[in-house]
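Quick look at the format.
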Amino acid sequence: MSSPAAAPVKPAAARGSRRPRGGGGGIRVAPYVFLAPFIILFLVFILLPIVLALYTSFFQTQRSGLGFGGANDKQFVWFANYAQAFADSAFVESFGRVLLFGVVQVPVMLLISLVLALLFDSAVVRWKRFFQLSVFLPYAVPSVVAALIWGFLYQPKVSPIVEGLASIGISVDFLSPDNVLWSLANISVWSVVGVNMIILFSSLQTVPREMYEAARIDGAGEFRMALQIKVPMILPALVLTTLFSIIGTLQLFNEPMTMRSVTSNISGSYTPNMAVFSSTTLGGDINIGSAMAIIIGLVTFVLSVSISAVSNRKKGSAK
């Protein structure tokens, strides 16, 4: 009599192994734990202030009792604060001033940063680490300190630069109404050339070296390789630095605010951010200041999107 066939024995589950609940892959908590600090900081310090500024910009505070214990009533006024902001000639002129500032300062600064990055990436310059650190050091100086240093160098009676130029027959007033904007641009260029150079130089390090070797075999020199290979390859980094520079230009505040103690040719509404500061902190009208801040944010957003669209269109046409 033959014995019945033994039933197949299922392999025992490994010790400590657990099946995910619900038959799926389970919820992984670790990524959300790591993202939580960023999300909290983003909501508290970026998104919440924007929402509060947008909300406040649609209201006006009606005060009674001549400020002596009277009631303060908030009234919804739609876009009246925005209309009042655009009617403020000093605020509108501040936009024209920083746009003129950016049209000159941003290309000059990016050109200097690009030339330095290309030089440091080439085989021409020696002691690259030393010169890279020297160029980057001004970025480590706080903007307020940089403005104070250059304010001293701009002073007619104490500046060695002014005295040196006067000794060769060149009379210049860096703090005159016609020159003070470009004196501020010089401070900005001196401060941020280093960090933009580092961004562009880091992007150049990702370019395959085989392309350089092939170009050298074809007889290309450093200048030709820079124009035809390096610059096109780091175009995304150039767009990124351009966007950062435009945002920084529209947010110009520390340098002109500090230079006000040196010259009277910088008004309280010299830049858009200074106009917001004057309206809120000095003027005590947070509603108008919020409307101005929203306008600055919208202008920055529009310019950034426009530059990105132009850059993407050029990439598409190049393909």
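Next, a different chain entirely:
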Amino acid sequence: MAQAQKIYFCGSIRGGRDDVHVYQRIVHVLRTYGTVLTEHVTDGQLTDTGEVSESGDKQIHDRDLDWLRQSHVVVAEVTQPSLGVGYELGRAKDLNKPVLCLFRPESGRRLSAMIRGAADGQRFVVLDYTQDQVESILNQYFSQNKI
């Protein structure tokens, strides 16, 4: 693992904030593997109205794309459907970033075929999990993938 590893974490903001506690748990573990560029996604005060930016949505888009370009790996919690997360994952795939998507089937939802179908088992990995497995899954992923 590189000393200055940068991790881009994706989780729903405007698509719904029901899973913020899950995002917090994931990011807590991710910090042991590097710098999480998008920790604001775990902010419990952030609502589904999104961030407030004086420069508007374009500034948020451009900032986040810059972080995505800087990142060494992308980890996404994809249980809560989100147009923004889907967009970020498509861009990450185009940038050839290693991507790990985490989905909780216990939610009763079905993961988009565009996400599950993108999985190649190497650069784009999709794993079903339970919250109790967060630490072990991330440990296994980062141990096997020297990013």
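DSSP finds five helices and five strands in the chain.

See the schema section for token definitions.
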